[in-house]
Specification:
single chain, 7 helices
Length: 218
Amino acid sequence: MSDQSRAFPGRPNLRFLKLEAKRRLAAGEFGTLHDAQLAIAREHDLPSWTALKEFVRAENSGPGPALSQVRWVLSRFAGAGEPGWAAPDHDAVTGYQLADDGTFGPAGAPVCVIPAAGGLWSTAADLVRFGAGWASLLPAELAREALRPHADRDPAGAQMGLGWLLQRPKDLCGHAGGGPGAASSLVSRLSDGQTSVALANRLVPIEPVNARLARPIG
């Protein structure tokens, strides 16, 4: 048992503290799990394991750092297009990395190697909403131009619109993305705008699977 006081990280994780107690018990440092938990609590200047759990829950009751960052970013862009609005500084948007103790901390600038990613995140539901309603964000003429072929991509019939990959013979348009440990695909039907989104926690070619799901069976 250490006599030195230990500080909690910014977002203490009770699961990791429990694992630490079991690991130290298995190592023979303590005779019972209760003794191991009590020692960890006292190392953090708390009188008991119950007090430690209450402290951790209180520390985690507010919005997490990732959610706070997203809210801050949205607030910076809320006035875009209004007179006097200025673009955020180059370091306004940052990413997060997962620490060994299970908490999130700011990641350095090199994490954002793809400008479009920029450290932001989205959900599958949000991507579906975007796919179904993106045209309403643009003037009608520009939205039509985005879905007009501007260049051929391959002999199979794929063409490039403005930001969209077009497969007009299959009545589809879409966009795919990926990075270390993740892949995403957004596909919409040109005829009716029905949208399908597929996400994977591996960097794999998921676009063909999503395109097949978006097409009628039969």
